[in-house]
Amino acid sequence: MTRRILHAVASAGDTCGGVSAAIASLGAVESAAGHEATLVTLYRPEQGITLLSGLPRWYDVELVRPGRLAGRFHGGSRLTEALRRLVPQHDLVVLHGVFDLASVVGGRTARRFGVPYLLWPHGSLDPYDLRKHSWAKHKLAFLWRESLDGAAALMCTSQREADRLETFGATTRRLVLPLPLPDDVQPLDRREARRRCQLPADARIVLFLGRIDAKKGLLPLLSGFARAAQPEDLLVIAGSGNPKLTAQLRRQADELRCRVIFTGWVDGARSRELLAAADVFALISDNENFAVAVAEAAQAGVATLISDEVYLGDELVPAGASAVCGRSPDLVARALRELLADPHRRRRMGAAGRAWARANLQVSAVAETYLELVGEVMRECRASVY
Protein backbone atom coordinates (compact mmCIF):
# COMPACT_ATOMS: atom_id res chain seq x y z
CA MET A 1 0.00 0.00 0.00
CA THR A 2 1.33 3.41 -0.98
CA ARG A 3 1.45 5.83 1.92
CA ARG A 4 2.06 9.57 1.96
CA ILE A 5 4.84 10.37 4.41
CA LEU A 6 5.80 13.88 5.54
CA HIS A 7 9.29 14.57 6.91
CA ALA A 8 9.89 17.74 8.93
CA VAL A 9 13.34 19.03 9.88
CA ALA A 10 14.63 22.43 10.95
CA SER A 11 17.42 22.33 8.38
CA ALA A 12 18.85 19.93 5.81
CA GLY A 13 21.95 22.00 5.06
CA ASP A 14 25.42 20.58 4.46
CA THR A 15 26.60 21.67 7.91
CA CYS A 16 23.93 19.46 9.49
CA GLY A 17 26.03 16.47 8.48
CA GLY A 18 24.52 13.20 9.65
CA VAL A 19 20.94 14.47 9.88
CA SER A 20 20.94 15.52 6.21
CA ALA A 21 22.52 12.21 5.21
CA ALA A 22 19.87 10.36 7.22
CA ILE A 23 17.06 12.22 5.47
CA ALA A 24 18.51 11.27 2.09
CA SER A 25 18.85 7.64 3.20
CA LEU A 26 15.26 7.43 4.43
CA GLY A 27 14.01 9.02 1.22
CA ALA A 28 15.71 6.24 -0.73
CA VAL A 29 14.12 3.63 1.55
CA GLU A 30 10.63 5.09 1.23
CA SER A 31 10.98 5.33 -2.53
CA ALA A 32 12.05 1.69 -2.70
CA ALA A 33 9.06 0.76 -0.54
CA GLY A 34 6.68 2.55 -2.92
CA HIS A 35 5.73 5.41 -0.61
CA GLU A 36 5.32 9.08 -1.58
CA ALA A 37 7.53 11.33 0.54
CA THR A 38 7.41 15.08 1.16
CA LEU A 39 10.02 17.11 3.02
CA VAL A 40 9.35 20.47 4.68
CA THR A 41 12.38 22.37 5.97
CA LEU A 42 13.73 25.86 6.44
CA TYR A 43 15.75 27.20 3.53
CA ARG A 44 19.14 28.06 5.03
CA PRO A 45 21.55 28.52 2.07
CA GLU A 46 24.29 29.78 4.39
CA GLN A 47 24.50 26.19 5.71
CA GLY A 48 25.20 24.80 2.22
CA ILE A 49 22.70 23.39 -0.27
CA THR A 50 24.61 20.55 -1.96
CA LEU A 51 22.86 17.80 0.02
CA LEU A 52 19.54 19.62 -0.14
CA SER A 53 19.73 19.95 -3.92
CA GLY A 54 19.85 16.14 -4.26
CA LEU A 55 16.73 15.48 -2.18
CA PRO A 56 14.14 16.04 -4.97
CA ARG A 57 15.26 12.66 -6.28
CA TRP A 58 13.18 11.14 -3.46
CA TYR A 59 11.10 13.95 -1.99
CA ASP A 60 8.62 16.58 -2.97
CA VAL A 61 10.54 19.36 -1.20
CA GLU A 62 8.81 22.39 0.33
CA LEU A 63 11.27 25.08 1.44
CA VAL A 64 10.18 27.64 4.01
CA ARG A 65 12.16 30.86 4.10
CA PRO A 66 12.80 31.83 7.72
CA GLY A 67 12.35 35.31 9.08
CA ARG A 68 15.23 37.67 9.75
CA LEU A 69 15.94 35.95 13.08
CA ALA A 70 16.70 32.45 11.86
CA GLY A 71 17.36 30.53 15.05
CA ARG A 72 15.84 27.24 16.13
CA PHE A 73 12.54 28.84 17.11
CA HIS A 74 12.39 31.39 14.29
CA GLY A 75 10.94 30.29 11.06
CA GLY A 76 8.08 30.96 13.09
CA SER A 77 4.67 31.55 11.59
CA ARG A 78 5.73 30.44 8.09
CA LEU A 79 6.92 27.03 9.22
CA THR A 80 3.90 26.63 11.49
CA GLU A 81 1.53 27.45 8.61
CA ALA A 82 3.30 24.99 6.30
CA LEU A 83 3.06 22.18 8.86
CA ARG A 84 -0.61 22.86 9.59
CA ARG A 85 -1.34 22.72 5.87
CA LEU A 86 0.75 19.64 5.06
CA VAL A 87 0.25 17.33 8.05
CA PRO A 88 -3.46 16.56 7.38
CA GLN A 89 -2.57 15.62 3.78
CA HIS A 90 -0.32 12.74 4.90
CA ASP A 91 -0.69 9.31 6.47
CA LEU A 92 2.46 9.47 8.58
CA VAL A 93 4.75 12.24 9.83
CA VAL A 94 8.47 11.74 10.49
CA LEU A 95 10.12 14.34 12.72
CA HIS A 96 13.89 14.81 12.74
CA GLY A 97 15.36 16.21 15.95
CA VAL A 98 13.80 17.19 19.26
CA PHE A 99 14.86 20.67 20.33
CA ASP A 100 13.49 22.87 17.56
CA LEU A 101 10.30 24.38 16.18
CA ALA A 102 9.87 21.83 13.38
CA SER A 103 9.68 18.99 15.88
CA VAL A 104 7.55 20.72 18.52
CA VAL A 105 5.00 22.18 16.08
CA GLY A 106 5.12 19.10 13.86
CA GLY A 107 4.26 16.86 16.82
CA ARG A 108 1.48 19.11 18.08
CA THR A 109 -0.05 19.41 14.62
CA ALA A 110 0.10 15.65 14.05
CA ARG A 111 -1.62 15.01 17.37
CA ARG A 112 -4.27 17.62 16.59
CA PHE A 113 -5.16 15.97 13.28
CA GLY A 114 -4.76 12.39 14.48
CA VAL A 115 -1.80 11.60 12.21
CA PRO A 116 0.75 9.19 13.75
CA TYR A 117 4.35 10.30 13.84
CA LEU A 118 7.81 8.82 14.29
CA LEU A 119 10.58 10.84 15.90
CA TRP A 120 14.28 10.45 15.05
CA PRO A 121 16.43 12.08 17.78
CA HIS A 122 19.62 11.65 15.69
CA GLY A 123 21.70 11.46 18.86
CA SER A 124 20.18 14.57 20.46
CA LEU A 125 18.81 12.57 23.43
CA ASP A 126 22.17 10.94 24.18
CA PRO A 127 23.69 12.06 27.51
CA TYR A 128 26.66 13.48 25.57
CA ASP A 129 24.48 15.83 23.52
CA LEU A 130 22.18 16.72 26.40
CA ARG A 131 25.12 18.43 28.14
CA LYS A 132 24.91 21.20 25.52
CA HIS A 133 22.56 23.98 26.69
CA SER A 134 21.48 21.60 29.45
CA TRP A 135 19.78 24.28 31.56
CA ALA A 136 17.42 25.33 28.75
CA LYS A 137 16.70 21.74 27.75
CA HIS A 138 15.66 20.79 31.27
CA LYS A 139 13.77 24.04 31.86
CA LEU A 140 11.60 23.28 28.83
CA ALA A 141 11.33 19.56 29.57
CA PHE A 142 7.53 19.71 29.42
CA LEU A 143 7.74 20.65 25.70
CA TRP A 144 10.06 17.80 24.79
CA ARG A 145 8.15 15.26 26.90
CA GLU A 146 4.95 16.25 25.10
CA SER A 147 6.56 15.55 21.71
CA LEU A 148 8.18 12.31 22.86
CA ASP A 149 5.07 10.97 24.60
CA GLY A 150 2.96 11.57 21.50
CA ALA A 151 5.27 9.74 19.09
CA ALA A 152 4.35 6.27 17.90
CA ALA A 153 8.03 5.36 18.29
CA LEU A 154 11.46 6.86 18.82
CA MET A 155 13.69 5.77 15.95
CA CYS A 156 17.32 4.97 16.73
CA THR A 157 20.16 4.04 14.40
CA SER A 158 21.90 1.68 16.83
CA GLN A 159 21.03 -0.41 19.87
CA ARG A 160 23.43 1.56 22.07
CA GLU A 161 21.68 4.79 21.13
CA ALA A 162 18.32 3.23 22.06
CA ASP A 163 19.71 2.02 25.39
CA ARG A 164 21.15 5.44 26.30
CA LEU A 165 18.25 7.73 25.37
CA GLU A 166 17.12 10.17 28.06
CA THR A 167 13.48 11.05 27.39
CA PHE A 168 12.44 13.52 30.15
CA GLY A 169 10.08 10.94 31.62
CA ALA A 170 8.43 9.82 28.37
CA THR A 171 7.97 6.07 28.00
CA THR A 172 7.64 5.86 24.22
CA ARG A 173 8.93 2.64 22.71
CA ARG A 174 12.29 2.65 20.95
CA LEU A 175 12.93 0.98 17.62
CA VAL A 176 16.29 0.47 15.88
CA LEU A 177 16.72 0.93 12.14
CA PRO A 178 20.17 1.42 10.60
CA LEU A 179 20.62 4.09 7.95
CA PRO A 180 21.02 2.50 4.51
CA LEU A 181 23.68 3.23 1.93
CA PRO A 182 23.20 3.37 -1.86
CA ASP A 183 23.22 -0.07 -3.47
CA ASP A 184 24.90 1.02 -6.69
CA VAL A 185 28.31 2.19 -5.42
CA GLN A 186 31.02 0.71 -7.64
CA PRO A 187 34.51 0.11 -6.22
CA LEU A 188 37.14 2.48 -7.60
CA ASP A 189 40.67 1.60 -8.63
CA ARG A 190 43.07 2.68 -5.88
CA ARG A 191 45.81 4.04 -8.11
CA GLU A 192 43.34 5.93 -10.27
CA ALA A 193 41.67 7.37 -7.16
CA ARG A 194 45.03 8.58 -5.86
CA ARG A 195 45.85 10.12 -9.21
CA ARG A 196 42.54 12.02 -9.28
CA CYS A 197 43.05 13.22 -5.70
CA GLN A 198 46.70 14.11 -6.38
CA LEU A 199 47.91 11.82 -3.61
CA PRO A 200 51.22 9.90 -3.66
CA ALA A 201 50.91 6.45 -5.19
CA ASP A 202 52.99 4.58 -2.62
CA ALA A 203 52.19 6.34 0.67
CA ARG A 204 50.23 4.70 3.47
CA ILE A 205 47.24 7.00 3.85
CA VAL A 206 45.09 7.55 6.93
CA LEU A 207 41.84 9.38 6.14
CA PHE A 208 39.48 11.46 8.23
CA LEU A 209 36.35 12.46 6.31
CA GLY A 210 33.68 14.57 7.94
CA ARG A 211 32.85 17.77 9.77
CA ILE A 212 35.75 19.50 11.54
CA ASP A 213 34.41 19.78 15.06
CA ALA A 214 35.83 19.33 18.56
CA LYS A 215 33.81 16.14 19.15
CA LYS A 216 35.40 14.38 16.16
CA GLY A 217 38.67 13.68 17.98
CA LEU A 218 40.94 15.29 15.40
CA LEU A 219 43.51 16.55 17.93
CA PRO A 220 44.25 13.09 19.40
CA LEU A 221 44.14 11.62 15.88
CA LEU A 222 46.75 14.08 14.65
CA SER A 223 48.97 13.57 17.71
CA GLY A 224 48.60 9.81 17.50
CA PHE A 225 49.38 9.80 13.79
CA ALA A 226 52.53 11.86 14.37
CA ARG A 227 53.76 9.27 16.89
CA ALA A 228 52.91 6.26 14.73
CA ALA A 229 53.77 7.46 11.23
CA GLN A 230 56.79 6.70 9.12
CA PRO A 231 58.16 9.59 7.01
CA GLU A 232 56.26 8.44 3.91
CA ASP A 233 52.88 8.11 5.70
CA LEU A 234 50.18 10.69 5.06
CA LEU A 235 47.14 11.90 7.02
CA VAL A 236 44.33 13.39 4.93
CA ILE A 237 41.79 15.55 6.78
CA ALA A 238 38.84 16.07 4.43
CA GLY A 239 36.00 18.31 5.50
CA SER A 240 35.09 21.77 6.69
CA GLY A 241 33.73 23.21 9.90
CA ASN A 242 35.16 25.05 12.88
CA PRO A 243 37.71 27.57 11.49
CA LYS A 244 39.51 28.01 14.84
CA LEU A 245 39.96 24.26 15.22
CA THR A 246 41.14 24.00 11.61
CA ALA A 247 43.79 26.66 12.27
CA GLN A 248 44.84 24.86 15.47
CA LEU A 249 45.19 21.58 13.58
CA ARG A 250 47.32 23.24 10.91
CA ARG A 251 49.62 24.73 13.55
CA GLN A 252 49.91 21.40 15.34
CA ALA A 253 50.72 19.59 12.10
CA ASP A 254 53.53 22.08 11.43
CA GLU A 255 54.88 21.70 14.97
CA LEU A 256 54.79 17.89 14.81
CA ARG A 257 56.39 17.90 11.35
CA CYS A 258 54.19 15.14 10.00
CA ARG A 259 52.65 14.92 6.55
CA VAL A 260 49.08 16.21 6.66
CA ILE A 261 46.83 17.43 3.84
CA PHE A 262 43.72 19.53 4.53
CA THR A 263 41.37 19.28 1.56
CA GLY A 264 38.49 21.43 2.81
CA TRP A 265 34.91 20.44 2.02
CA VAL A 266 34.54 17.65 -0.55
CA ASP A 267 31.49 16.46 -2.49
CA GLY A 268 30.19 12.91 -2.75
CA ALA A 269 32.28 11.96 -5.79
CA ARG A 270 35.52 13.17 -4.22
CA SER A 271 34.59 11.45 -0.94
CA ARG A 272 34.35 8.12 -2.76
CA GLU A 273 37.72 8.73 -4.43
CA LEU A 274 39.35 9.53 -1.10
CA LEU A 275 37.91 6.35 0.43
CA ALA A 276 39.28 4.33 -2.48
CA ALA A 277 42.68 5.96 -1.97
CA ALA A 278 42.87 5.34 1.79
CA ASP A 279 44.56 2.52 3.69
CA VAL A 280 42.83 3.32 7.00
CA PHE A 281 39.76 5.40 7.80
CA ALA A 282 39.92 6.92 11.30
CA LEU A 283 37.22 8.49 13.47
CA ILE A 284 38.27 9.00 17.10
CA SER A 285 35.04 10.74 18.02
CA ASP A 286 33.79 11.62 21.50
CA ASN A 287 30.32 10.39 20.52
CA GLU A 288 28.56 9.06 17.41
CA ASN A 289 25.13 7.43 17.49
CA PHE A 290 25.78 5.90 14.05
CA ALA A 291 28.52 7.58 11.93
CA VAL A 292 27.52 7.45 8.26
CA ALA A 293 31.14 8.11 7.22
CA VAL A 294 32.29 4.94 9.00
CA ALA A 295 29.54 2.93 7.30
CA GLU A 296 30.60 4.36 3.92
CA ALA A 297 34.22 3.45 4.62
CA ALA A 298 33.20 -0.12 5.47
CA GLN A 299 31.14 -0.33 2.28
CA ALA A 300 34.16 0.92 0.31
CA GLY A 301 36.31 -1.87 1.74
CA VAL A 302 38.55 0.34 3.89
CA ALA A 303 39.85 -0.81 7.27
CA THR A 304 38.41 1.46 9.96
CA LEU A 305 39.81 2.65 13.27
CA ILE A 306 37.18 4.13 15.58
CA SER A 307 36.88 5.21 19.19
CA ASP A 308 34.91 3.23 21.73
CA GLU A 309 32.19 5.92 21.60
CA VAL A 310 31.31 5.26 17.94
CA TYR A 311 28.24 3.09 18.43
CA LEU A 312 28.52 1.41 15.03
CA GLY A 313 31.57 -0.38 16.44
CA ASP A 314 29.18 -2.68 18.30
CA GLU A 315 28.38 -4.16 14.88
CA LEU A 316 31.65 -3.68 12.99
CA VAL A 317 34.11 -5.07 15.54
CA PRO A 318 32.39 -8.49 15.91
CA ALA A 319 32.22 -8.62 12.10
CA GLY A 320 36.00 -8.16 11.93
CA ALA A 321 35.65 -4.90 10.00
CA SER A 322 36.96 -2.38 12.51
CA ALA A 323 39.51 -1.80 15.25
CA VAL A 324 38.62 0.19 18.36
CA CYS A 325 40.85 2.34 20.53
CA GLY A 326 40.59 4.84 23.36
CA ARG A 327 40.74 8.56 22.69
CA SER A 328 44.21 9.41 24.01
CA PRO A 329 47.08 10.10 21.55
CA ASP A 330 49.07 7.14 22.92
CA LEU A 331 46.22 4.68 22.36
CA VAL A 332 45.53 6.09 18.89
CA ALA A 333 49.23 5.80 18.03
CA ARG A 334 49.40 2.17 19.15
CA ALA A 335 46.33 1.18 17.13
CA LEU A 336 47.49 3.06 14.02
CA ARG A 337 50.97 1.58 14.26
CA GLU A 338 49.53 -1.95 14.32
CA LEU A 339 47.19 -1.33 11.39
CA LEU A 340 49.71 0.45 9.19
CA ALA A 341 52.25 -2.33 9.74
CA ASP A 342 49.89 -5.12 8.67
CA PRO A 343 48.50 -4.85 5.11
CA HIS A 344 47.02 -8.36 5.29
CA ARG A 345 44.96 -7.40 8.33
CA ARG A 346 43.78 -4.23 6.59
CA ARG A 347 42.65 -6.25 3.57
CA ARG A 348 40.77 -8.73 5.78
CA MET A 349 39.05 -5.89 7.62
CA GLY A 350 38.15 -4.16 4.36
CA ALA A 351 36.61 -7.33 2.93
CA ALA A 352 34.69 -7.94 6.16
CA GLY A 353 33.39 -4.36 6.14
CA ARG A 354 32.18 -4.64 2.57
CA ALA A 355 30.38 -7.91 3.35
CA TRP A 356 28.80 -6.45 6.50
CA ALA A 357 27.55 -3.35 4.66
CA ARG A 358 26.12 -5.48 1.86
CA ALA A 359 24.23 -7.67 4.33
CA ASN A 360 22.97 -4.91 6.63
CA LEU A 361 22.84 -1.54 4.89
CA GLN A 362 21.53 -2.13 1.39
CA VAL A 363 18.44 -0.05 0.67
CA SER A 364 16.49 -3.16 -0.32
CA ALA A 365 17.16 -4.87 3.03
CA VAL A 366 16.40 -1.80 5.15
CA ALA A 367 13.32 -0.99 3.06
CA GLU A 368 11.75 -4.35 3.88
CA THR A 369 12.22 -3.77 7.62
CA TYR A 370 10.99 -0.19 7.36
CA LEU A 371 7.90 -1.22 5.40
CA GLU A 372 6.98 -3.71 8.11
CA LEU A 373 7.60 -1.11 10.81
CA VAL A 374 5.46 1.56 9.15
CA GLY A 375 2.65 -0.93 8.59
CA GLU A 376 2.78 -1.97 12.24
CA VAL A 377 2.72 1.66 13.41
CA MET A 378 -0.25 2.48 11.20
CA ARG A 379 -2.24 -0.53 12.41
CA GLU A 380 -1.52 0.13 16.08
CA CYS A 381 -2.19 3.85 15.90
CA ARG A 382 -5.50 3.34 14.13
CA ALA A 383 -6.67 1.50 17.25
CA SER A 384 -5.11 3.91 19.77
CA VAL A 385 -5.19 7.63 20.52
CA TYR A 386 -4.96 8.43 16.83
UniProtKB/TrEMBL annotation:
Keywords: Glycosyltransferase, Transferase
Residue ranges occupied by any Glycosyltransferase subfamily 4-like N-terminal domain in the UniProt entry: 17-178
Gene3D superfamilies: Glycogen Phosphorylase B (3.40.50.2000)
GO function terms (MF aspect): glycosyltransferase activity
InterPro entries xrefs: Glyco_trans_1, Glyco_trans_4-like_N
Domain Glycosyl transferase family, residue spans: 189-356
Protein known as: Glycosyltransferase involved in cell wall biosynthesis
Biological source species: Lentzea atacamensis
Phylogenetic classification of the source organism: Bacteria, Bacillati, Actinomycetota, Actinomycetes, Pseudonocardiales
